[in-house]
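[job 0412] stage=fold_complex status=start
inputs:
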Amino acid sequence: MNMMSEAAVEKALDKKMNDVSFKMIGKDVSVYYGAKRALFDVNLNVRQNTVTALIGPSGCGKSTFLRCLNRMNDTIDSCRVTGKITLDDGDIYDPSIDVVELRARVGMVFQKPNPFPKSIYENVAYGPRIHGLARNKAEMDQIVETSLQRAGLWNEAKDRLQEPGTGLSGGQQQRLCIARAVAVSPEVILMDEPCSALDPIATAKVEELIHELRANFTIVIVTHSMQQAARVSQRTAMFHLGNLVEENDTDKMFTNPDDQRTQDYIMGRFG
Amino acid sequence: MSTHIASVYDEDLKYLTRRISEMGGLAEQMVAESVRALVNSDLALAQKVISDDVILDDAERQIGEKAIITIARRQPMAADLREIMGSIRIAADLERVGDLGKNNAKRVIAVANASLPRQLSRGLEHLAELALVQLKEVLDVYASRSVEKANSIRERDSEIDAIYTSLFRELLTYMMEDPRNITPCTHLLFCAKNIERIGDHATNIAETIYYMATGAQPVGDRPKDDSANTVGALESST
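[job 0412] stage=fold_complex status=done
writing structure:
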């Protein structure tokens, strides 16, 4: 019975995916670090309620593109972004955009778990507090609990909410960071190699989490593990030397990709 | 195609290709010898075919194990994954071809005492020749990965089906002529069916190679002349 309903949920989700609606649209996106060009006119659309994986060799521009999606590149002085990126039709590089507001809508999880040197509770509550999402303690408690539950950390953390977040294991810390990202109810979550510092069990938990989060969020993940991209994503985009080489259904990408460079990369062959 | 960064991976894949080719050669030989044993009532040759089957069975098992280990170790993707899955399937088809040859060989003793009309044994030989040509060509295609040829093999399978149907009729005629022919002719009918099946396996392999090379299934239905299924139906109803 339970299986049935899960299958039904999955089906509804797939249907939702099939009427393709783009959450974010990247048009002719180029990035320069000083005089060096890191991205060349990338056109990549991110589908709603879909996990999109960005793959490619080191230095191919996949992380650079990811960081454009919530203007993380703004923090680098020499960095210049051209082209257009929209979130629900709104230009995110429009001068009137409040970047803090944008990053609440497009959250991010980094390669290394980076909890604040504060309690588990405070790690999750920090975002909602600065964005004024809770009116009182009870509401904040609720947000913290829901976020930790969504991140699959509630059972492990509920009895030690006041202990420092840095005291958790690596995998737990990463899930805490996901709870922190989820707490401000973003629409899109960007993940930059979220499992590269985790052991296989912690990795499996984060991947399971990504699978569940897809129902409520749109996810873009950068990963060096092709197997991970194949496991967690529905769409995959392959970058090479700053160009988007191919974007395709993940199943197609890993069984019969269209582009020779994708083929060589995923099969571990010399180009 | 370019080589893998990990050279051991290339060696694993080469091992699979080499073993498949070996299996193909042996299966071909077994089928040819089984038909020769049948036509010449050569019991010693039949016995050799029966004992050769063990080698083929072992080879299939070893290919399967190597494939599993390679999948577990390398997590193959795209063309590599298709290559490995394809080798498992082809090995299974070739193992079946060997079994069919062995089954023919086992029937030699039952047919040995009956004197086959020359025409009948020629019919069987012709059927076997066609099936062997199919098998040989499909193994060549496996070595060359030429997709167009894989398709032409698939299309030629209906020739074998047609000859099988005519042999079927012929055997029925002998059985009706003299009830003493029933036992050997029934065995020969099974032999003919076995050989016809070999053609089917060759076609399976051609389709697998097509998939390995292109990532797509061959288009359209397999050409098939299965009128043998209804031989006798018209005659008895009229």
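[job 0412] summary: The radius of gyration of chain A is 19 Å.
[job 0412] exit 0
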